[in-house]
Amino acid sequence: MLIVRGVNVFPTQIEELVLRDERLLPHYQIRLTREGNLDEVAVIVALRSETHDADECARALRERIKTFAGISVRIEMVAPSALPESAGKAKRVVDLRSG
Predict the structure, then answer these.
(1) CB 3 within 8 A of CB 41
(2) What is the structure's pLDDT at 66?
(3) Which phi-psi region, left, alpha or beta, contains residue 45 (left: φ > 0; alpha: ψ -120 to 50)?
(4) pLDDT tens digits, one per residue of 22-70
(5) Structural domains in the chain?
(6) Which residues pair with 9 in a beta bridge?
(7) Number of C-alpha atoms within 13 angstroms, CB side, residue 25?
(8) Pairing assessment for the beta strands 38-47 and 74-78 based on DSSP bridges
(9) Which run of H or of E encompasses 56?
(10) How far, in Å, are 9, 91, 98 from residue 66 at the CA level?
(11) CA 67 vs CA 23, 33, 60, 61, 62: distances in Å
């Protein structure tokens, strides 16, 4: 479980929303940083096909996460090769917040 701006968020909530969208690959990463006193969350995902509109997919995912998990996130669309496919357990959450 992650605590982001006082909200309890389970990575599985975000995973479920990524997996529901057929336009997205199931490989994703959640990156947590802190800007000043505020926690920032980025969800890094890749499109299944270049024919899909990256901006529309990002907007839709951002809205679903806000609705279902209760937090605002930044969506970063990357090339499929930019995300590691796991041969074992993938590192889905990268917490770069200090202290």
Answers:
(1) no
(2) 96
(3) beta
(4) 999 988 999 999 988 889 999 999 998 888 899 999 999 999 999 999 9
(5) 2-81+91-95 (3.30.300.30)
(6) 2
(7) 20
(8) parallel
(9) helix 54-69
(10) 11, 23, 24
(11) 19, 21, 11, 10, 9
